[in-house]
């Protein structure tokens, strides 16, 4: 078995046994390779960010947290190429661009033969002009949204006036190639949209932010008719209705 298929098979072997750890010797026998090869493969998985860990002592070995990984997903070559191409086209300053980049690398690494070559060639033909949004700002916004914490902003409005704001994030809006943080602004006591490339500084405060209805904050604005992208619609549980939420 080649190394790339073996790495994926290692992950699934550990998932199947979880939470029980497996020894290097058992994994080596399972894949008919040396224990040294298994050790190298496990270290490579750790370096790639796969949540594998070693447990020392009697009854120890290697294990994986199944809640932190996904089971195998069988993409067709066309689906895999479409995903790699879409991720390659993502603006480097857009929210979660770092995760998109590593996801693209994992998809590409899982492909082989003509499908891999076609995806790489197509992705190489896509270029993008980066927006001005700083990586530190993007990271702070991502963290505040993920952890539901209050965010402290320094913001430039359309005429260049700077103000400091405390905001309670509700979600993200994309329009005309720009990204906006939609939030309840404590300074203005109202819902506001903050263009990411106009945020000059952002820092999570650690204070829990109360939940806000994203659609309610958009009411009365030019984005009142915003809809969830079709690709994200499938993530909403069947039967769930109501306003758009982050």
UniProtKB/TrEMBL annotation:
Chain ranges of the WYL domain: 139-202
Pfam families: HTH_11 (PF08279), WYL (PF13280)
Top-level taxon of origin: Bacteria
SUPFAM superfamilies: Winged helix' DNA-binding domain
Record Gene3D superfamilies: Winged helix-like DNA-binding domain superfamily/Winged helix DNA-binding domain
Transmembrane segments: none
Domain (Helix-turn-helix type): residue spans on this chain: 6-59
PANTHER family hit by this protein: PROTEIN PAFC (PTHR34580:SF1), PTHR34580
Name of the protein in its database record: Transcriptional regulator
Originating species: Kitasatospora aureofaciens (Streptomyces aureofaciens)
